[in-house]
Design a protein that fits this description.
This protein is an alpha/beta fold. The chain is built from 13 helices and eight strands. An eight-stranded mixed β-sheet has the order 1-2-4-3-5-6-7-8.
Length: 322
């Protein structure tokens, strides 16, 4: 069983579920999640001879929650991974695994600190190289300037999304998680005008898909009722800072062994339709890549398909042993 413990990562203290002994596998969740999103993988990874460590990203759950928006930039989050690795396995290169926002975090950890991270696995979000412009420019051109709603634009102004979502966290989580799951029908994430609230048009399914039980949802609700959503949402408010930081690494490839697992019904895996074949598109940027697209899988990859993801992850990890 995973032990929840606090880890001094240097700039912040992070809570993590830790289990096992051996080479460090550091697991990084996305939005709106928790260390708990890796609950199906932690035990098997530990049983396979690794130290499985699933963190609460800064701002979430039991981890520290800095107030400043800039404290959630990519450089700081990569620094947290280095800090955890140094605390648990000093001097030993670690393996990174990330999902959703955790995927860009681990991709950039591998890109910028190859001395510290010897392999990287990412779920849901592919790596397309160092960006040539801030993502805010991309989505404003594609959505905002055309009067279309885009959730990351909605998250930009501090207090707006918090004001809508925090009064009823359970309602938010049920609707948001379902809308981009593999169980949702076409149109569950509706087209709507810029300025609309996030939850407008989202469905509350009854019953909820079986892969997320009432007990699982209760855990997530308790985490966000305790921590709030400001820290998690601040991640979306750093696109310009992230762009500026990553320019020093333009042209660099991720040379380490890499694994990507996406879903054919996950809008993030195709970058909202812009990249129909993410595995092929990643090849120039991640030459040592093994890629898998899970048919019918939505956004919550390791929770929707726990057995399949765990099998692929363990097979890949097994080939990384010295």
């Amino acid at each position: 069983m995973s032990e929840l413990r606090m880890i001094d990562a240097g700039a912040v203290r992070l809570r993590a579920g830790v289990e096992g002994d051996g080479p460090l596998v550091l697991m990084v969740h996305g939005f709106p999640e928790s260390w708990y999103s890796w609950r199906h993988q932690i035990g098997p990874v530990a049983a396979a001879g690794f130290t499985a460590c699933a963190i609460d990203v800064r701002g979430y759950g039991g981890s520290d929650k800095p107030a400043d928006i800039a404290a959630y930039d990519m450089e700081s989050l990569v620094g947290d991974l280095v800090g955890v690795a140094d605390a648990l396995r000093p001097g030993e290169p670690a393996i990174l695994v990330g999902h959703d926002w955790g995927a860009p975090i681990v991709w950039h950890g591998a890109l910028t600190r190859p001395d510290r991270f010897r392999a990287v696995a990412a779920l849901s979000v592919p790596f397309m190289g160092v960006a040539k412009r801030p993502f805010t420019d991309v989505f404003r051109e594609a959505f905002t300037k055309k009067g279309r709603f885009f959730y990351q634009e909605y998250f930009q102004q501090p207090g707006v999304a918090e004001g809508e979502l925090e009064p009823d966290v359970r309602d938010f989580l049920r609707k948001f998680i379902y809308a981009i799951s593999g169980d949702a029908p076409a149109g569950a994430w509706p087209e709507k005008p810029h300025g609309a609230p996030l939850l407008q048009g989202l469905q509350d399914p009854a019953p909820f898909p079986a892969w997320l039980t009432d007990a699982d949802l209760d855990y997530y609700v308790a985490q966000f009722e305790g921590s709030g959503l400001r820290g998690p949402l601040n991640r979306y408010r750093n696109h310009e800072r992230d762009f500026a930081w990553t320019q020093a690494f333009a042209g660099r490839r991720i040379e380490q062994p890499a694994l990507f697992i996406g879903g054919t019904k996950d809008p993030a895996s195709t970058l909202f339709g812009a990249v129909p074949d993410p595995v092929a598109a990643m090849a120039p940027h991640v030459p040592n890549l093994e890629g898998h697209m899970l048919d019918g899988c939505g956004h919550w990859t390791q929770q929707e398909r726990p057995a399949e993801v765990t099998r692929l992850l363990l097979d890949w990890l097994g080939r990384l042993r010295p």
